[in-house]
């Protein structure tokens, strides 16, 4: 499935050619699809490895970022995170950087995998507290560590605002766009964040949270890793049930302005996702719509 105009084709033959060229010791291992997202395509390699390839040249920057920073962050985090074991170089079969990681067993966070959502929300908050507490070691909000999430909401309005109109005219949508836009505008009027910059995962949605025995076990996909204000980090809790969301907020002690800005970031990601992927990625649109509907429901 092609999602972007400048996307590089990826299939099992591509991965096999890269392995034969750069990792011949693994070339004979079984290879099978392991999912895909808006930025990357994954293949499981044998029992213990995962191959991750970026869809576009822009996304390849995230691959290099994970290779550089994950080994530095992992020792300071209590829960498992991806471990890069090979930094793939552009080759004849694929023109971009790519990675091989240790496979992490676990299930996505869902109603049938999480036993106690309040405990899960508190555990996720503990991970966020750990990550945000790691010393930046000179890292700054520049280059690959500068991303729109973690900056100012006001800087995003120029490209977020038109998406509300797109969603109003999209066929078969039942979103309460007026409420969502009102909440977005209210957040824009709040004072800007004034705290220190921290490390941000950037995309703590349920598909990036792996569960074992009903509890949070690992956090994956650090392609959005950046440095910035923490408000945007909290946006994905609207993907979780209300009890997890409340436990998360309580555990971190998030005040009303931070919560409103976090909700606005959730709206921004959701509304732009619906607008951009409406005709090409129905599963992701459904994910975005569910997040936006949860925001509206919480206001009711």
Describe the structure.
- Helix content is 40%, strand content 15%.
- The protein is of the alpha+beta class.
- The chain has 2 domains: 12-102, Phosphorylase Kinase, domain 1, CATH 3.30.200; 107-299, Aminoglycoside phosphotransferase (APH), C-terminal lobe (Aminoglycoside 3'-phosphotransferase, Chain: A, domain 2).
- Strand 2 (40-45) and strand 3 form a beta hairpin.
- The longest helix is centred in the last third of the chain and has 22 residues, at 256-277.
- The two termini are 37 Å apart.
- Residues 32-265 form the Aminoglycoside phosphotransferase domain.
Briefly say what this structure is.
It contains eight helices and ten strands. It has two domains: 12-102, Phosphorylase Kinase, domain 1 (2-Layer Sandwich); 107-299, Aminoglycoside 3'-phosphotransferase, Chain: A, domain 2 (Alpha-Beta Complex).
The neighbouring-strand order within the major sheet is: 1-2-3-5-4
CATH architecture of the largest domain: Alpha-Beta Complex
Write down the domain tally. 2
Number of contiguous helices: 8
- Mean pLDDT rating: 94
Structural class: alpha+beta
CATH topology-level name of the largest domain: Aminoglycoside 3'-phosphotransferase, Chain: A, domain 2
Write out the CATH superfamily name of the largest domain: Aminoglycoside phosphotransferase (APH), C-terminal lobe
Q: Tell me the number of strands.
A: 10
- Outline: globular
CATH class of the largest domain: Alpha Beta
Q: List segments where confidence is low: pLDDT < 50 over at least 5 consecutive residues.
A: none
Strand fraction:
15-25%
Q: Span from first to last CA?
A: 37 Å
Instruction: Give the proportion of residues in helices.
Output: 40-55%
| Major sheet description | 5 strands, antiparallel
Order of helices and strands: HEEEHEEEHHHEEEEHHH
As a whole number of angstroms, the C-alpha radius of gyration is 19 Å
Protein name: Phosphotransferase
Pfam family, one: APH
Keywords: Transferase
GO molecular function: transferase activity
């Amino acid at each position: 499935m092609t999602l972007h105009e400048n996307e590089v084709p990826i299939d099992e033959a591509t991965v096999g050619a890269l392995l034969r060229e750069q990792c011949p010791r693994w070339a004979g291992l079984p290879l099978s699809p392991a999912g895909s997202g808006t930025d990357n395509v994954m293949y499981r390699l044998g029992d213990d490895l995962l191959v991750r390839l970026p869809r576009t040249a822009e996304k390849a920057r995230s691959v290099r970022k994970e290779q550089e920073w994950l080994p530095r962050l992992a020792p300071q985090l209590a829960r498992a995170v991806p471990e890069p074991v090979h930094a793939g170089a552009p080759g004849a079969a694929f023109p971009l950087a790519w990675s091989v990681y240790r496979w992490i067993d676990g299930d996505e966070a869902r109603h049938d995998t999480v036993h106690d959502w309040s405990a899960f929300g508190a555990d996720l908050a503990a991970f966020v507290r750990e990550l945000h507490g790691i010393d930046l070691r000179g890292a700054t909000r520049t280059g690959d560590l500068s991303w729109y999430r973690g900056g100012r909401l006001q800087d995003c309005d120029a490209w977020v605002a038109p998406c509300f109109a797109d969603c109003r005219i999209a066929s078969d949508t039942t979103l309460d766009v007026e409420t969502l836009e009102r909440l977005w505008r209210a957040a824009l009027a709040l004072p800007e964040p004034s705290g220190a910059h921290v490390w941000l995962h950037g995309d703590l949605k349920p598909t990036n949270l792996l569960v074992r025995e009903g509890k949070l076990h690992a956090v994956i996909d650090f392609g959005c890793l950046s440095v910035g204000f923490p408000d945007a980090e909290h946006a994905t809790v609207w993907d979780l049930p209300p009890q997890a969301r409340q436990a998360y907020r309580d555990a971190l002690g998030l005040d009303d302005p931070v919560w409103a800005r976090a909700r606005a970031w959730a709206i921004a990601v959701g509304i732009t996702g619906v607008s951009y992927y409406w005709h090409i990625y129905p599963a992701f649109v459904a994910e975005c719509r569910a997040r936006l509907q949860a925001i509206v429901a919480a206001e009711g």
